[in-house]
Amino acid sequence: MDKTIQPQIYDSSERGTPPVEELRAILKYRHLLTQFVRRDILTRYKRSVLGVAWTMLNPLGTMLILTIVFSRAFGGSQSGYAAYVLSGLIAWNFFAQSTNAASLHLVWGGSLIKKIYIPRTIFAVSATGTGLVNLLLSLVPLLIVMLIVHVPIRPTVLLVPIPILFLVMFSLGLGLLISTIAVYFTDVVEMYSIVLMAWMYLTPIIYSEEILPEMYRLWIVRLNPMYHLIELFRAPMYEGRVPTLSEFLISGAIALVTLLAGWLVFTENADEFAYRI
Amino acid sequence: MNSLTVSEEAVVEEPGFPEDQESAIILDNIGVRYRVSPERIFTFKEYMIRRVQGKVRIQDFWALKDFTLNIRRGEVFGIIGPNGAGKSTLLKIIARVLKPTTGRVIVKGRVAPLLEFGAAFHPDLTGRENIYLNGALLGFSHQEMVEKFEGIVDFAELWDFIDAPMRTYSSGMWARLGFAVATDVEPDILIIDEILSVGDEAFQRKSFARIRAFYERGATILLVSHTMDTIRAMCHQAVWLDHGVMKAVGEVENVIMAYRKGQPE
Q1: What is the mean pLDDT of residues B165-174?
Q2: Pick from B42, B105, B129: which is nearest to A186 by CB?
Q3: Is residue B242 a contact partner of residue B264, using CB atoms and an 8 Å limit?
Q4: Single pTM value for the model
Q5: Could you tell me the pLDDT band of residue A50, with boundaries at 50, 70 and 90?
Q6: Is B105 exposed, middle or buried (0-12, 13-18, 19+ CB in 10 A)?
Q7: Residue A35 is nearest to which of B44, B119, B136, comparing CB atoms?
Q8: Strand-pair partners of A17
Q9: How far is the CA of B147 from the CAs of A6, A29, B142, in angstroms?
């Protein structure tokens, strides 16, 4: 308690730019951040017998179904279709779950931010943090499946933190944008789940982009940010190659721009939230 | 602080603004505006339809207006007024939850609101886990909460259930733990919004004793209540709010008298 003896002073007229202030606040509240992530992970599995194992079994189950149903249709030319699907799926799941949870948590946290000051970005940041823990856990079954279906595990997997970092930045940015809208209109959360489903099928996750006709490839694939991010994740993981410089740069730019946009839009509007939720 | 009238223009003593060493909370000309749409629009679909029809109307509503007040360190300050007077809005401004639309607020010290006893508790987590979660909400690290943990459980008298999920708790146990956490963090400023009726009689007595101990230690306390006896028993000063406007401020007895007189039969 010694460090709090010097009283903290809040002065409503002495506030810097919201995006910077928020960053400072979230660092100060890092304990709450870890508590939120802990709570999300604990409560999700607490009442189940298998506990955290579900994080790993869940994508495995989906992969198994997809492999049985689609390996003939989409995977004819693909060696190790199961590993192909799974690698795309865990990256997608991370993105879908974190962005969705970000807006849900903020609406849920409405009762809290009306009563007590906490940095408002903490809901999106903790949702992404929870997603990240799940993503890292899912890497274990992915590596096992790769061994089983004889997809070689190359040293390039050590590069995988970079695409994961970009995925985190992109998801956090988009999660913040969607939460901002969700504060004003509650149905946006529902709409977003529908968008997510369509978006998933437009992204080469269960099929490979080669099966698409050339003309669609440009529009559906190249303009889809998740295509680039998932490809960057798959390259070192599944394909065992070092991504090209342009692949790194495109994904990095997408991630950075989305994160900055999300952070700015959210923090500029955050003072309004307590009035709205 | 004896001057007081019940006229439209409330007479307020010099608040000593801007710099007074003794002040814990300085509110200078605070105004809070809510923008409300008369037909509450909740969905994006509805909004777009109305937008196209040109039917999005917004009304301004001032929950607080030209509010100036100076609360000194160590004071127990009562806030009274009818429902919708702006009492909760005032507390939110001080707790940093709302940013005032106009004016300036300065708060010196750590503020702890008494959350509606455990609003932040998660039913699937154990009492122990929830204590750490709530501590973090108030800005305390895990290490700091480790030191407070024993005292909190002692006060709440929940040693037997501390490792059981909170959904198995009775509502009284739930409330006791909420009160224990919120008040064990030793805030400089404690905000109490009409919630002193927690638990059984013995626990209530303990709660009162603890709040008393707070101000003996020099903490500032803001108390909203509709029970005039509570205000009388606990507060040094009081303010009467009505429709976002300060009607009277000063000695508790005088403010209560003015408030009673101002009420329709």
Answers
A1: 87
A2: B42
A3: no
A4: 0.84
A5: confident
A6: buried
A7: B136
A8: none
A9: 20, 19, 9
Task: Tell the burial category of A210 from Cβ atoms under 10 Å away from its Cβ (0-12, 13-18, 19+).
Answer: exposed
Q: Looking at the complex, does the CB of residue B1 fall below 8 Å from at least one CB of chain A?
A: no
Closest by Cβ to B97, choosing from A31, A38, A114: A114
B75 CA: distance to closest CA in chain A (Å):
17
pLDDT tens figures, A165-219: 999 999 999 999 999 998 888 788 889 999 999 999 889 988 888 888 887 777 7
B40 touches chain A (CB under 8 A): no
Own/partner long-range contacts of A201-207 (Cβ < 8 Å, ≥24 apart): A203/A88, A203/A92, A203/A227, A203/A230, A204/A88, A204/A230, A205/A85, A205/A88, A205/A89, A205/A92, A205/A230, A206/A66, A206/A70, A206/A74, A206/A85, A206/A88, A206/A89, A207/A70, A207/A73, A207/A74
Q: Residue A10: list chain B partners with CB under 8 A.
A: 96, 105-107, 111
Structure tokens that stand for A193 in this block = 């789940």
Given CB atoms, is B194 within the 8 Å cutoff of chain A? no
B249 by DSSP, 3-state: which? strand
pLDDT band at residue A47, thresholds of 50, 70 and 90? low
What distance in Å separates the CA atoms of residue A54 and residue B217, rounded to the nearest whole number?
A: 50
pLDDT for A126 equals: 95
Phi, psi dihedral angles at B76 (to 5 degrees): -105, 115
Tens of pLDDT, residue by residue over B92-122, are 899 888 888 899 999 988 887 765 556 678 8
- The residue whose two tokens read 């909203």 is B224
In a domain, B64, yes or no: yes
Q: Classify B143 as helix, strand or coil.
A: helix
CA distance B90 to B67: 9
Identify whether B23 is part of a domain: yes
Cis before B18? omega within 30: yes
Instruction: Specify the number of domains making up chain B.
Output: 1
From A2's Cα to the closest Cα of chain B, the distance in A is 11
Interaxial angle between packed helices A81-108 and A53-74, expressed in degrees from 0 to 180 and rounded to the nearest 10: 130
pLDDT tens-place string over residues A23-38? 988 998 998 999 899 8
Query: Which domain covers residue B245, as residue numbers?
Result: 4-110+225-261
Note the pLDDT of residue B198: 62
**Does residue B263 register a pLDDT over 90?**
no
Ranges assigned E (strand) in chain B: 23-36, 59-72, 76-80, 102-108, 111-113, 189-193, 220-224, 237-242, 245-251
Contact A271 B108 (CB under 8 A): no
Q: Which residue spans within A201-255 are E strands per DSSP?
A: none
Determine how β-strand B102-108 pairs with β-strand B23-36: antiparallel
Count of CA atoms in the C-beta half-sphere (13 A) of B34: 17
Q: Are the beta carbons of B33 and B64 closer than 8 angstroms?
A: no
Is B12 a domain residue? yes
Q: Which residue of A has its CA nearest to B165?
A: A46
pLDDT attached to residue B48 = 77
Q: Specify the CATH number for the domain of residue B79.
A: 3.40.50.300
The answer to whether residue B218 is domain-embedded is no
